[in-house]
Structures are given as structure tokens and as C-alpha cells.
Amino acid sequence: MSARKHHLLGAGLVALAVLSASGCALVAVGAVGAAGGYAYSEGRERRVFAVDMDTAWQAVHAAADELGMEITSDKRTPGSGELAARWGSEGTSVRIFAKAVGSGSTMIGVRVGIVDQSKNLTIMRKIELSMPPGTPPSEAYE
Predict the structure, then answer these.
(1) Sheet arrangement for strand 70-77
(2) What is the value of pTM for the model shown?
(3) Homologous superfamily, domain 45-140
(4) Cβ atoms within 10 A of the Cβ of 19, count?
(5) CA-CA distance, 47 to 137, in Å (whole number)?
(6) Distance (Å, rounded) from C-alpha 106 to C-alpha 117?
């Protein structure tokens, strides 16, 4: 977990302690929930690839197959897709989503568990390697 996430979580716990001592436990729980929500929303990797949605989705499936993921759900529309899977001996949950973000560009996002950035990056790298030869490097999606 990054230093910023630790800082936010620590701030939330301090708020919980201070406010619960003063009788405002409900407000404190909200502060901790907000810190946890931030960590969850930031616990993913998102990249933009200069490929159309069909090509991106093929790369997602190729990467999932190569990594030995057990696909539990595969939803696809013309402009987006979401794949849910279990990965590894622990059956860690994985979500991979894709969305067309312009003519010939697709954003792909990966989330492993709640926050496991190293595994997010492993999967994203495998997706990138599954793109057709000559595909430009991906760019961060903010």
C-alpha cells in the first residue's frame, strides 16, 4: 500500500478514535469508510491502448488464458466489456474491464482483490504483450 493510502487510512482511524470519544461514532465511521473507499478506487491499474475494442478484448482473453485464470463472468457490449475471474491457488478475484474511449482507442482496467497493485501490473503487462505486433505502448488513463 502506498504512503498516501497509509496516511489516509491512519487519518481515518485517528478520526474514529477522536470522534467516538466525543460521541460522534457515526461521523467517525463515515471518515474511515471514505478512506477505505479511496483505497479501493485507487487499487486498480488503467491503461489506454491504441487498438479497437475487439482487438483489446481478444488480448484480454489471451492474457487471462495464458495466466490460467478461471473466468466466472464475461459480459460484452459493442463499446465495453467486463471479465470476472479467479486466479491462482488462492482463487483471488480479478476484474478486467474495457471501454472504447475514442476512435481506435480502448481503456483497459485491472483490479486484483481489493488492492494488489503488483498483480494488477502483472496482468496488465500480460495484456500488453498479447496485443498485435506493432501496437504502440499503452498510456496511463487518468
Answers:
(1) 70-77, 80-87, 92-102, 105-112, 45-49, 139-140
(2) 0.70
(3) Kinase associated domain 1, KA1 (3.30.310.80)
(4) 18
(5) 10
(6) 21
Rounded Cα distance between 32 and 10, Å, is 9
Give the range among 6-20, 82-96, 97-111 with minimum mean pLDDT: 6-20
Contact by Cβ (8 Å): 61, 136? no
Identify the three-state secondary structure at position 18.
helix
Q: What is the rounded distance in angstroms from the CA atom of residue 57 to the CA atom of residue 43?
A: 22
Q: Which residues pair with 6 in a beta bridge?
A: none
Phi, psi of 72 (to 5 degrees): -105, -20
| pLDDT tens profile 45-63 | 999 999 999 999 999 999 9
Domain ranges of the chain: 3-41, 45-140
